[in-house]
Amino acid sequence: MTTAIIITLCTLLLVAYVFALTSAKTKIPSVLLLLILGWGIKQATIFLNIDLPDFNPALPVIATIGLVLIVLEGSLELKVDKSKMGLILKSFLGALFPIIILTFAIAYGFHYVGGYELRSCFINAIPFCIISSAIAIPSAVNLDKKAKEFVIYESSLSDIIGVLVFNFVLYNEVYEATTFLNFGLQILLILVISLVATIGLSMLLARIEHHVKFVPIILLVVLLYTVLKIYHLPGLIFILLFGLFVGHLDKLKNLAVIGRLIAYDPSKEVEMFTVLTIEGTFLIRSLFFLVFGYLLETSELFDATTAIWAVGMVALFMFVRIIQLAVSRLPIAPLLFVAPRGLITILLFLYITPENSIATVNNSLIIQVIVLTVLVMTFGMMFSKSEKGEEEASVQEEKLVEENLADKKPN
């Protein structure tokens, strides 16, 4: 039995790697293929009458670790300088305002149609309004550099802002001046903790001489995020700041304070840490969507009673996103389609207690919204022009022109 599990797991992860390799050519997000693969395995086990353990308890654990690694991977890849401040601002506003607008629209829809208590409607609406960085970031492989950076910033900030808003509504029953004051103090506290923890972890990264040095740091990052979550503090802010700090350690080392803490050039360690994070993220993300696909129930996927809500919500997502991109003066296609829901949506719904849940929002609606947004992204990317391909072609054309001019110059 153990041998069979090891063979199956290794085979599935290798198939996931093939999906990742081919997604750039097929424009089909590997996440969609993983969901289909996981669902297909479930049907095969039913047909062959194979009993497997219940994977439901493992899903939130994998989702939490995956969220940390995905945000960390995205922040490590981002390069911040003055020339990118406009893009960062657009990404922030693009993450903030759609969450606010969509949350109010969906919450009041739940309230007026179902007659549910308004606070519960807001709690159940917020997870639907957050873009999943777990799906958006790897799916941005076909976009040009600027669009890819926008997707990474926007989806990472959407995760962070969404979790902040969700926790604020979930853990506060009364909204007074003191409520907002306490919330502000929490943000200030997490910034101080993030600064101290980031500098400390960066020192470890640069100074540990033992041959095992990167895994302990990643474990400390996950541990600190989990502890912060226990106290309802926005740990994703820490993850984002830590990733940005480490990713720019070579430049920050020139500062007097940072230079004293880090004795030598850390670029090699940062590069190795980034590679390890990327590969670890691939494993956890692939495992999560395989398990999630396995747990999909066909009856929930094709539930007609929630399909109207799901289609209406996805249409509203697209409408608001068109306005957002137009106001930000960003290309409508293919960015319009890169706004999937996924891991963070599932994770937040797991935190909703029975007294705050509403009948309209069930597994069927959650699954349908996630699958529909992934399908919209898939077909949108497939039928949009490959901006990355055009960019590469333009670069190649410029190189050919330069070579021809060089050949024509007299010796």
Overview of this structure, please?
The radius of gyration is 23 Å and the shape is globular. The protein has 18 helices and no strands. With 411 residues, the protein is mostly helical. It is 76% helix and 0% strand. It has one domain: Up-down Bundle (Na+/H+ antiporter like fold), CATH 1.20.1530.20. The longest helix has 31 residues, at 177-207. Helix 3 (58-77) packs antiparallel against helix 13 and helix 3 crosses helix 16 (343-350).
Q: Any chance you could write out the topology, listing elements then pairs?
A:
Elements: H1 2-26, H2 30-47, H3 58-77, H4 85-114, H5 118-125, H6 133-139, H7 145-170, H8 177-207, H9 214-230, H10 235-247, H11 249-252, H12 256-261, H13 267-295, H14 298-301, H15 304-327, H16 343-350, H17 363-383, H18 387-408
Q: Regarding CATH, which class?
A: Mainly Alpha
Report helical residue fraction.
over 70%
Percent range for β-strand residues:
under 5%
Q: How widely separated are the two ends?
A: 73 Å
Task: Please tell me the total number of domains.
Answer: 1
Q: Tell me which CATH architecture applies here.
A: Up-down Bundle
Describe the largest sheet: none
Query: Which residues sit in consecutive blocks of at least 5 with pLDDT less than 50?
Result: 389-398
Structural shape: globular
Number of strands: 0
Q: What's the number of helices?
A: 18
- Class by alpha and beta content: mainly alpha
Task: Return the average pLDDT rounded to an integer.
Answer: 85
Radius of gyration based on Cα positions: 23 Å
Helix and strand element order: HHHHHHHHHHHHHHHHHH
CATH topology: Na+/H+ antiporter like fold
